[in-house]
Amino acid sequence: MYRINKLVGTLLALIVFATMFGVAYAMWSETLRVNVIVNTGEVDIEWSSVECDDTGIDPGYDKDVASCSVEIIDLEEPAAKIHIEIDNAYPCYTVVITGVVDNVGTIPVKLLGITLDEMDIEPCTVYELDLDGDGLPDLNVHVEFVDLEGDGTQIDPGEADAFRITIHVKQDAKELATYEFEMEFAYAQWNED
Amino acid sequence: MKMSFAANNALLKALALLLLFIIMGTAYAMWSEVLKVNAIVNTGEVDAEIVRAYTPDSVPGILDYNGRPTTWPSPEDFVFNPGYGWVAVIAGDIEYWETDKDVAYADTWLEDSDGDGDTDTVYVKMHNAYPGYMIWLSLEVDNVGTIPIFIDYYIVNGTTLTDEQIERNNLVFLDADGDGNPEVLVQLYNFLGDQIDPGDGLESSWRILVLQPVGETQEYVITIQLIAVQWNESIYYGGG
Question: Which of the 8 DSSP states describes residue A135?
Fold first, then answer.
């Protein structure tokens, strides 16, 4: 009797299972897919040329007394850094460094800011630098952009922007002194606030 | 008398034979008719197709739109889906505006992935994308089968989203590298729970936004599945 009950029970379980299985298969479905692929571009700038206008005779004079050297430092960040060194300068000595920044990436960039020895500075403003800390300014620095596109400091891919840095040695500069400073130009994608 | 007996015997045999013929004749005379029921069940088909996919910024030369989300997910909002990365679904919206530049673009194409003659997959590819770039994806799904259907749920990079969840939260943030900073955002248009009869369709417009943490020269892939089921098995049928 127990065996019969067990057999009946097993059969019933099988029927229930088969019914459930049948219902599961009975839900017809269709899957639609939306595949989104995002390929990002690149912000990349580089110096294409940097030069100093003192290539011999001191600018504005008739003698070759002082000299100026410019070094480009390439950083991983989207920034361009230059190192300027002036030797044997004297009061009223003035040089102009002209540089061209190329956008070699695929995204338009704009200038986020300029720092001079980690101090934020504004273009078209004359800054007086007291590099020896004696309370008297040693140099004047002035930065202006020579816009090649006509819209200020924004550079589209394949385009370039130029700038001028004017350095003027002041009367309070000391003899046999070395004045060194660094400027950094940081660029970012154009749509950043 | 002998002859008479023989005649009787022959007569008896003839009678027996006649009786046999009568019996057999009766059997042959039982006419019959067979009635048949032939049941033929022709089943219908659940079949949906993406008949149109479109982005307004589909070719170079069109000004870009930029956007930003009004909210940002916290680390505990993210769920890890093996093979896809991290997904966070939260409530919010996207602010957007037109820019004055054409930098990126996004084209679309349709594909019949299972070879049944219907285009069931749409690809959306953003080219030269950057943080802030936003597109609209316009999508039309038609019922090309013979059975009414519902889109029951979405599966976005492994995360299943139903109507109730989409009503509540429709911003899906995708963090491919698991650093807690999502790279891409999809704002889903909700057409879950709307019945699509054979021959009818539904149209929607989704937004896809590239977020600030996105890396340069990278490729991110998002897979969104739309699961369509026969109407009477849908979770939305009869009020769900």
Answer: S
